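User: Sequence recovery, please. Input:
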């Protein structure tokens, strides 16, 4: 006898259709946050509903959760370190330092903030740039008496995606796309160095041109730079050491989750001991809801795989690859970049990553899918969780950026950066 809790809608439609509807509604809940409920609730609710409706066996759901272990560890380590940098004032110091060096030049401040955003994204991931750097940049713009802070805070969203494939650690989506087959650093850098440079420079150029009117303003002059505390200095050293550890792990082809988690825990322990602070404030500031959110998304994708949709995509990749690898790479990169803005880049990356891994596609196609997943979210505010969290950070700073404003800018910024990055992906082979 079927359990009463199973959803009756599954009796009226195929399991595949029911799975797609539940996954789509859960993803829509993550993006839109009805009733202002946390994103994690919608992802977890969708995962539980799949199991309760009999669309996904509990064993498969647990397998989906376990698949994300490396990503959870990576996220926790990065969030700990990013929150430590925020608590110790490292981001505030960096933003104030940039404002101080810029003097009265709005364009100079814009350029320096962009460089800081690149560095934070490369070594602390795109989430740290979008969530933690944004308040520091907004504060620096206010201290410089910028009449229009929008150009500076826009950097935090755009560069968070544009610089997110410089290193494997620059975006959690990179771990999702490659799964257990992450290439070592010696293979990653030659493949993605030129596309990353093209993307970063193209994004900077378009932002500079589109914001040129606001950047004609004169700033108030040199901004006082607060002294970097001992804890802040220790945090900067810890970040440098962690970057070296992770690059060494990547060079050896190791999974990045556990080294990131351990490095984050050790760094927090050392800095808190030096600062003689209790860990509770730090731990409360970490966005722990991201972990169940990602776990729920892994289960939703496992449900789609169980329904056979990943197998269908895998067949399409295999057929297209037999026809033309370059055409498939270009098409996949562009298609995935657009798909990210419809369903968010994390579920899009999970689906695309599962399909390309199963199809054993050539590196060019896999690279194009990764670039599309990382860069596509620069088109709209729904593209990535980092951009959604960036909007939340802006609201706390009383700065409003409408979805239409972001879309108009994204339509100018994302396409040229994407096309240049995809072109550079093929040039880098020669």
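Assistant: Recovered sequence (430 residues):
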């Amino acid at each position: 006898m079927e359990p009463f809790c199973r959803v009756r809608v599954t009796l009226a439609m195929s399991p595949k259709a029911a799975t797609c509807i539940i996954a789509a509604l859960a993803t829509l809940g993550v993006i839109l946050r009805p009733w202002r409920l946390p994103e994690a609730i919608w992802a977890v609710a969708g995962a539980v509903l799949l199991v309760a409706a009999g669309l996904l066996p509990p064993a498969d759901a647990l397998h989906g959760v376990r698949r994300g272990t490396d990503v959870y560890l990576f996220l926790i380590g990065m969030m700990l370190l990013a929150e430590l940098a925020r608590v110790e004032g490292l981001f505030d110091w960096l933003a104030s330092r940039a404002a101080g060096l810029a003097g009265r030049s709005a364009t100079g401040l814009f350029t320096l903030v962009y460089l800081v955003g690149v560095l934070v994204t490369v070594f602390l991931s795109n989430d740290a740039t979008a969530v933690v750097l944004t308040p520091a940049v907004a504060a620096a713009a206010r201290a410089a008496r910028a009449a229009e802070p929008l150009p500076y805070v826009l950097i935090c969203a755009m560069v968070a995606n544009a610089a997110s494939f410089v290193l494997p650690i620059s975006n959690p989506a990179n771990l999702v796309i490659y799964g257990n087959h992450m290439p070592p650093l010696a293979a990653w850098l030659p493949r993605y160095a030129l596309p990353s440079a093209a993307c970063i420079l193209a994004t900077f150029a378009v932002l500079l041109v589109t914001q040129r009117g606001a950047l004609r303003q004169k700033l108030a002059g040199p901004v006082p730079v607060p002294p970097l505390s001992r804890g802040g200095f220790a945090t900067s050293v810890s970040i440098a050491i962690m970057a070296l550890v992770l690059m060494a792990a990547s060079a050896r082809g190791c999974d990045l989750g556990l080294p990131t988690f351990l490095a984050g825990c050790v760094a927090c322990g050392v800095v808190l001991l030096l600062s003689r602070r209790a860990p509770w404030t730090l731990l409360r500031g970490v966005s722990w809801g991201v972990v169940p959110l990602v776990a729920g998304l892994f289960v939703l994708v496992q449900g789609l795989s169980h329904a056979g949709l990943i197998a269908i995509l895998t067949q399409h990749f295999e057929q297209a690859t037999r026809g033309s690898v370059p055409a498939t790479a270009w098409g996949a990169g562009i298609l995935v970049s657009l798909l990210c803005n419809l369903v968010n880049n994390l579920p899009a990356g999970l689906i695309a990553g599962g399909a390309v891994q199963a199809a054993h596609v050539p590196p060019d196609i896999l690279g194009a899918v990764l670039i599309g997943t990382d860069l596509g979210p620069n088109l709209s505010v729904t593209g990535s969780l980092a951009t959604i969290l960036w909007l939340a950070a802006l609201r706390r700073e009383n700065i409003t950026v409408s979805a239409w404003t972001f879309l108009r800018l994204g339509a100018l910024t994302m396409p040229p950066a994407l096309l240049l990055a995809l072109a550079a992906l093929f040039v880098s082979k020669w």
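Confidence is low (pLDDT under 50) at residues 1-11.
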